[in-house]
Amino acid sequence: MAANGDGFSEVSMEDLMGQVEKRQISTIVFIIAMQKEAQLMINRFRLVKDINSPFPKEVTWVLFNGMYKDLNISIVCPGKDSTLGVDSVGTVPASLVTYASIVAMKPDLIINAGTAGGFKAKGASIADVYIVSSVAFHDRRIPVPGLDLYGVGMRKAFPTPNLIKDLNLKVGRLSTGDSMDMPPHDKESITANDATVKDMEGAAVVYVADIFKVPTILLKGVTDIVDGNRPTSEEFLENLAAVTAKLDESVAKVIDFINGKCLSDL
């Protein structure tokens, strides 16, 4: 490392990232779209709602936190829409809470956990839980050179080869959009993204986390088969409870594996 004019060593970004990856993970923030998806995890890790959260008083975001083994765990949900009283799903709330959570809590690791649609053509079945290898958007079509790739926004999730091997997790690509249905133009984009699962938040979370260089893992439980024979919304509601239970079990195993480890151990 070279010394600058003030006598201090100039540390490269690679050196800094190496130091970060060798430091034991202590703070994890979960970004979860719906509290129904998060409740079992909140109970399992005995997290408590933070009534003095660092977020602006105007927002409906909900923060739960606590200690589990050696980990400071927080779960952040966008909460209910202030006008309609429904869960604030989609990429905009996910982006906002991810940004605010990074600024306020400075996590070592972000985990985006939740439910997703799966494609039987790619081997997905109801209640499968996938760890995501890469993310992309399927509804940001900008047919202008350069902006077309920006629209797709393909990014890799943080690599976790040891975690995947130890827990025998299924791995797949995730495609994100702001609609639950899949019209033909979305289907074409999802196919181009080579996605096994689709959701409404993941790529937005990774986009923000990538700006701040915060490693991100995504875990998605399959509630509905998008290329199946049943209406997506009907299948989603029918399977939500069972799949969140399966997701909770997978998250518990992931957290137990992470405890006491560094990013480079994952």
TrEMBL record:
A UniProt-annotated Pfam family: PNP_UDP_1
Organism expressing this protein natively: Arabis alpina (Alpine rock-cress)
Highest taxon of source: Eukaryota
GO biological process, one term: L-methionine salvage from methylthioadenosine
Domain Nucleoside phosphorylase span(s) in chain numbering: 27-255
UniProt-listed SUPFAM superfamilies: Purine and uridine phosphorylases
Protein name, as recorded: Nucleoside phosphorylase domain-containing protein
InterPro entries in alphabetical order: MTAN, Nucleoside_phosphorylase_d, Nucleoside_phosphorylase_sf
One GO MF term: methylthioadenosine nucleosidase activity
